[in-house]
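User: Hi! I'm working on a homework problem where we have to compare a predicted structure to a textbook description. Could you give me the structure for the chain below?
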Amino acid sequence: MSFNHSQRLASVALTGRVLGVLYRQDPQGQDAAPLYAALADPLWAEQWPAQSAQLADIARRMAEGIAHAQEPLSEAYQRLFVGPHALPAAPWGSVYLDKENVLFGDSMLELRRWMRENGIAHQPEQNEPDDHIGILLMLAAWLAEQGQRQRLDELLAWHLLPWAGRFLELFTQNAGHPFYQGLGELTRLTLADWREGMLIPVAGKEIYY
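Assistant: Happy to help. Predicted C-alpha cells:
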C-alpha cells in the first residue's frame, strides 16, 4: 500500500508541475518554451502517469495545436488567461464558488487561511488571487514532492476539485484552440487520477458560474 502512495505522490509531483506551467506561463517564456517543445512530439503520452484510452488522441491534438494552429500559441494564451477581453473561462476558484462571481471571494480567503495555518508561503504576482488553477496545480505538485499526503488531499478536496470540473468544462468548450482544448481534457483525466486513493472526500460546494 505504501508503494502505491509513493507512486501517487510521484505522479502528482510530475503532472502538477507540467500542467501548472501550461496554465501559468506564456508559451514563449523562458521556463515554458522547452516544455512546449517536448509536447510537440505526441509520444510523451506513453510516459504520462495518468493513462487513459483518450490520451493518445489528446496528445496528437495538442501537438497539432503547437505545430499547425492558425492562432499562435502565445496569442491564444493571452486571449484565454490575460485579456484584455473577458476570459472564456475564469481560472480562479472564487469566481465559481462565490455568489457574486468575484475575485478574492470567501473561498479564496479560506484557501489563504488554510495555507497560513499550514505554513505555506506564496507570493502572488501583482496581488493575484491564490486560487488560480495553475497556482493550485503547482502547489499540489510541491506538497507531493514534500511527501505531505494529508495536506495534498486537503488542498484537492477543499480548494481545487470542488470547482475544477466546472472550470474545465467551460475552458474546453470555449478555448477555440486545439492545444488548449487538449490541455483541458488532459487536466480533467489527470485530476481524476489524482482523486484515486484520496484520504478524504471532495467537499460538496455550490457552483455559481
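For your comparison, note the following. The radius of gyration is 16 Å. The longest helix spans residues 149-174. Good luck with the assignment!
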